[in-house]
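Ticket closed. Logging final result for FAD binding domain-containing protein.
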Amino acid sequence: MSVPLYQLPEQQPSVWQPTSVEEAMQLKHQWGDNSVLISGGTWLRTRWENGLSSTPQHLISLGRIPALSGLTIDAQGHVHIGPACCLSDLMDNELMRQRCGLLVQACSEIAAPSVRNLASIGGNVVTRTGDLIPVLLVMNAQVGWSDGQKERILPLKEWLESRLLTSDEMMTKIVVRASGQVAAKQTEAEQQTNVEPNKVEQLEQDASRTHEFYLKVGRREAFTPSVVTVAGSLRTEADGTIAAIALSAGGGSAVPARFAELEDAVTGKLLSKEVLQTLHKGVSEGFEAVADDYAGVAYRKITAANLIVSECYKAWRKGGGAYAPRS
Ligand SMILES: Cc1cc2nc3c(=O)[nH]c(=O)nc-3n(C[C@H](O)[C@H](O)[C@H](O)COP(=O)(O)OP(=O)(O)OC[C@H]3O[C@@H](n4cnc5c(N)ncnc54)[C@H](O)[C@@H]3O)c2cc1C
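Final structure:
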């Protein structure tokens, strides 16, 4: 069992530094609502400073639990990310840059370097409104949760939709399949020892017809809270048919979500002006935006739709077949 790190004055919280998930959850169960799990503390601190929640008596730091800070890749090409990994470490990591380029881009657009040196990917997701979530949704991320004894893994999408309270569990991992065109090609190729030349060619063609994007709109260019964030991935066949599409939107206080019905509705269709109109309507109607002091619901809906459609238009131009626009 850990001992409090500092002998602090009574009004200040004790900081506990467990070294395993089991120990951390034991402390959480022991202190209950008088405690909080803390990773980088950047989100929690803004809440305490703004009076949105009170500082609890016990802070259970996750920084000394090795299992929460690992970064590995398994035989199937899935990247396992420890939730306590800070954003700047993820941005600097070669595996992440090669396999999860879109996620690295999203990390680089959060706050400023000093905040990113502390802010964790797990903390970003647990807030349910973090700007990394749209990308993770497009990557079909899975999240692991543990009560200290058992671990369960479920799709991030399911966890967000279930609105489960997480006070009895801790996030233990985030698992994503590689994104990025080079990564997709490498992953497939590595799974087969002798890749036939025509298979490699096929993978290269798939990669050249895949368009991925992440866009964050704020009130200014950098170091700003998001008003709207969108992410997506669109792969076309040689003739411009949509082979696969994944779209998501979030930003501000909205809980990010995919557009599953819309994705199903356009998959298998030839990219065209009509399909872009369908996407625009579907996103602006389906995005559950939330108004705040920065922007209203209507502005956020139309912005998300404009951003997504402009990226799909780029995909159409890039690999959309004989009828694709050339300019
Ligand atoms: C100046 C500034 C700018 C910011 N800009 C942005 C921005 O542009 N975009 C954005 O998305 N966010 C932004 N944030 C918010 C915040 O920095 C990020 O969301 C960050 O990734 C949160 O991570 P953290 O480790 O600091 O979380 P913490 O504050 O440590 O924790 C956040 C929440 O997650 C819980 N938690 C953390 N880890 C776990 C775990 N493993 N299991 C269960 N619960 C856990 C905590 O109990 C808490 O409820 C900003 C913050 C600041 C101060």
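The longest helix spans residues 297-319. No further action required.
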